[in-house]
Records
---
Amino acid sequence: MNSYHLAILQATNNGRFPELGDTWRNYHPEAVLSDSDYPVLTEANDSM
């Protein structure tokens, strides 16, 4: 299994939460976050 499939499995908790499949970039070591992902992550981090 390649690293992209492993990242998707991690993001979806082995398929239990398929709606979270789009978050695979957070779990892949070589994936670059898209511009649309960045503000969501930084806003969440700022509120902590």
---
Amino acid sequence: MAALCAGPVRIRTDSNAVLSFNIHRMLTWIESIFAVQNDKIQAIGRRALRLLLLSNAEDILLNSGEF
């Protein structure tokens, strides 16, 4: 799941359809990882959050009012 955070959460197909992940649910998943008291699991959460923010900063800022 953390690997999915490395790419765009929203794409437009050739037929102009928009496909997207639910950013709120992805952030909720990452938040639940940080609640686990295990360094290896939390490292996965840090990696996922970093990749999500780096790959999708504009989408996350545009949708910040939805949270």
---
Amino acid sequence: MHESDRTAEEHGSELRVLVVDRFPIVWHALKTPLIGNGLAKSVDYASDTGAAYRKCVDGKIDIVVTDVTVAEDRDGIRLCGLLKNSARPPRVLVLSSTARPDFVASCVISGVDSFVYRTADPELAISAIAALTGEGQPIWFVGDSGKRLPKRDSSLDVVAANLTGREQEILSLVLLRLSNDEIAARLHLARQTVKNYVSCVLQKLEVRNRAELFTSPFGTGYIESVESGSYAR
């Protein structure tokens, strides 16, 4: 048995972590302190989201650490959505190479439990994993200013589950105060199509208009914190 594995067992940790990243160095950087300090029993690795999903389907992974994009645009976020709909969903930490506000918003809507931008000290990523075991409030860190976002409301996940993938994407952009024209240009859709999507989203969220949406749980807290400048482009 490897010495680090004995250390984890001696500390009684049963936490099983899966790191999903193109570069194994990220896995090694997390595995050493997690195992060595007895925070995790195992730290597995997957180089793509398909392999990661297959490792998680048996329900033996407790925490998944992934980037926003592993191999394809936002595939890490899509992986989170799939895992959150599984029989035994793991907690998900996005250790992200980008803190673009639209990406952060997509993470929120997809049910990500914690977010750490990679400009943070390495210790913060370890603290974020520890927090997902119940040892403190989930960490949302989106920039070098050091500002952390408030804990997400778990009830939002239930509402978001009723939205289609496109509707979630539209919602994330609306929350960032983009107009229908701006959303249409970004997503290469007709303005009327965007308008129809927005109306459908507002109806599902049981709000009458954008102004009411912005004062709802979806429009306050973490999204406003992202907009306030606590991120790096």
